[in-house]
Amino acid sequence: MCAYALRPNREVVHPEWTSPVADKLDLVERVIESTIDSAVELACEISSHVFSAGGKRIRPALVVLSAGACGAQVDAPRVTGIAAAAELIHTASLLHDDVVDAANARRGVSTANAKWGNTLSVLGGDFLLSKAFSLLADADGPGVLTVLSAAAVSMAESEMLQAVCEGSIDSWRAGYWRIIHGKTASLMAACCECGAVLAAADESVRLAFRDYGTSFGVAFQITDDLLDIIGDPAQTGKDIGTDLVNGKFTLPVLLAYERGLALTPLVGSGRLSAEDARRVAVQVVECGAAEEARRVAEDYAGRARNALTEIADSDYKAALNALASSITARDL
Amino acid sequence: MCAYALRPNREVVHPEWTSPVADKLDLVERVIESTIDSAVELACEISSHVFSAGGKRIRPALVVLSAGACGAQVDAPRVTGIAAAAELIHTASLLHDDVVDAANARRGVSTANAKWGNTLSVLGGDFLLSKAFSLLADADGPGVLTVLSAAAVSMAESEMLQAVCEGSIDSWRAGYWRIIHGKTASLMAACCECGAVLAAADESVRLAFRDYGTSFGVAFQITDDLLDIIGDPAQTGKDIGTDLVNGKFTLPVLLAYERGLALTPLVGSGRLSAEDARRVAVQVVECGAAEEARRVAEDYAGRARNALTEIADSDYKAALNALASSITARDL
Fold it and tell me: Furthest-apart CA pair in chain A: how many Å?
């Protein structure tokens, strides 16, 4: 959790026309502040930077004033939440705009892309857009949207974490499980949980399907990471060692590193050359780390099947079990 | 509307484990196909490219199979729609991933960023993510989420249109109104409409607030465009003529062009140098086009106030009217 307060150095000044709702706009500011909090500190830091840079908060004011003019109770959490969501959607588009325009400053303050680069600005925008929908989902009560928007937030956070870890073996060792849970397993778990929600299933059933999706997603991603080392480029459509070239150190490589694979001298700029990457891939196989990674993936596939033990048998359940069994054997 | 069919040259082959739901996955494919349709042809073209490149459609299968295993009716439009939304969220993240990784190929097919560049890939991802939430909103019946997600889709589409128009005066002449409606007015209209929805107001009231927001948004954007020509950099935080440097030809410039301003010889690469941009800004003021653009903005501000004529008086309504009046006089 990070503790950035919005506009730490600025007095919030609302223009005169906002007077009927000035205190409500302060509430909106608090909602924005708590919404952009994230376990991925950088997600919060970038969001806080763009919100602290100012802005007139016209969109939240439009929501609150229009609601008031129609007779709604303007300090209801639902009104405040939706007003905050509108500002998040707007700010997400500003982050992406600044990338598109390669802008250096906005409102006299450095843009996020000038400060953190394009990659993190794109992902920061995704984080805010997904958070906006997450707020909207909360406003309507729990349902499939809550589940899927939370997954979209996790995906953006993990992609940011992955970008920050780029080129650092130690960062990948510390972050690997969190990254693959967020970038792959979270959406798959959400898909399965949505199935249970659609059937109005019990909480225990919902959790069982969520567990299936999480374990399946981890097995899927480890297999994906493995295919970067042992896959057939004609099947996968990408060269061996592409992850290494992109500064990504995934499970098979991390396991080889623990077995003593001398990666450090190869990692100068944080990324490997295509030739070094291919050489490392061969070593990862030879030292047995690729095989070990496959066993870990198979273990997760087994956990996925186990998650459904209490679920009544059906063709659908059989298909989910078959899917879990086949996923670690896939070749693309 | 564009008429790209998914996988025009490929047979859709579902792996064996999908057999209980193969026909449902075909339905999901049709939903994806109709969802990515867009009046902005490029939005549809890029989406169609990434979906046609293949993919195993695992996430939709997880939704449908989990729903079936819990006893839901798996061919209900709600199930199919949510399954399609999950695939859209996934594909949006792939588009942004490929930008982040500067990847040239995925699944053996050129990536969108290799084909259309980073800008359009980022915006294409935003389009798909917003469309996903739009589908989810439809699944839950009309409400604030429907309104706001539709605005997010419009924003992404218009940003794409703007990117495509970059550097071409003729394209900006043809597209200016559509661009500013989509990128600015759509979210402001949605904010106001949400206010009415939150108050459970009548359809006519909802439309009145939507109209207010649209006209207000247009007045706001024209004023923004004008500040690029006549603003004080100390107030706006950006240099005079930044839009021209970025290849954007906005209303004041388009009006000057219609009055005979000789822009064409200046536009070599599609963007103006900072010096040429400042010179053009002076000319736009001298020929009276800046003043004319301000009148157009004021006209829209008047339309915004008129939209609320039938709404009962209140402090909130008065604030909205004051906001509309002040917006064309703002200096940042």
Answer: 72
Across the interface, whether the CB atoms of B213 and A85 are under 8 A apart is answered no
Measure Cα distances from B197 to A71, A99, A113, B201 in Å. 11, 34, 36, 6
Residue B300 lies in a domain: yes
Domain-terminating residue out of A141, A174, A195 = A141
How many CA atoms are closer than 13 Å to the CA of A154, on its beta-carbon side? 21
Q: B51 CB near a chain A CB, below 8 Å?
A: no
Cα separation, A293 vs A284, whole angstroms: 10
Q: Is B310 left (phi over 0), alpha (psi -120 to 50) or beta?
A: alpha
**Which pair of structure tokens corresponds to residue B67?**
């729903």
Q: How buried is residue A200: exposed, middle or buried, by Cβ count under 10 Å (0-12/13-18/19+)?
A: exposed
Q: Is A195 on the interface with B (CB under 8 A)?
A: yes
Please state, as a whole number, how many other Cβ atoms lie within 10 Å of the Cβ of residue B3. Answer: 8
- Tens of pLDDT, residues B5-38: 565 444 456 677 778 888 889 999 999 999 998 8
Q: Give how many domains chain B has, as a whole number.
A: 2
Q: Are residues B159 and B171 in the same domain?
A: no
Interface of B with A in 148-167 (CB under 8 A): 148-149, 151-152, 155-156, 159, 163
The CATH number linked to A251 is: 1.10.600.10
- Phi first, then psi, for residue B106 (nearest 5°) are -140, 135
Same structural domain, A192 and A332: yes
Q: Do A191 and B59 touch (CB under 8 A)?
A: yes
Q: Does residue A71 share a domain with residue A174?
A: no
Contacts of A62 in chain B (CB under 8 A): 188, 191-192, 195, 213, 216, 320
B145/A133 touch (CB, cutoff 8 Å), yes or no: yes
pTM of the model: 0.83
Measured between CB atoms, does B22 come within 8 Å of chain A?
A: no
Q: Are residues A49 and A196 in the same domain?
A: no
Beta-carbon contacts of residue A25 (< 8 Å; ≥ 6 apart): A14, A18, A57, A60, A61, A64, A83
Q: Is B330 left (phi over 0), alpha (psi -120 to 50) or beta?
A: beta
A183 and A84 together in one domain: no
- Structure tokens given for A244: 């290494």
pLDDT digits (tens, 9 = 90+) for A154-177: 888 888 888 888 888 999 999 999
Instruction: Kindly tell me the burial class for residue A302, based on how many C-beta atoms sit within 10 Å of its own C-beta (0-12, 13-18, 19 or more).
Output: middle
Closest residue in chain A to residue B77, using alpha carbons only: A198
Hey, are the CB atoms on B66 and A195 less than 8 Å from each other? yes
| Dihedrals phi, psi of B110, to nearest 5 degrees | -55, 140
Residue A298 pLDDT > 90: yes
Size of interface A-B (CB pairs under 8 A): 315
Query: Which residue in this structure is represented by tokens 């465009």?
Result: B225
Q: What is the rounded average pLDDT for all residues in chain B?
A: 86
- Do residues B201 and B101 both lie within one domain? no
Tell how far CA A74 is from the center of its chain. Answer: 33
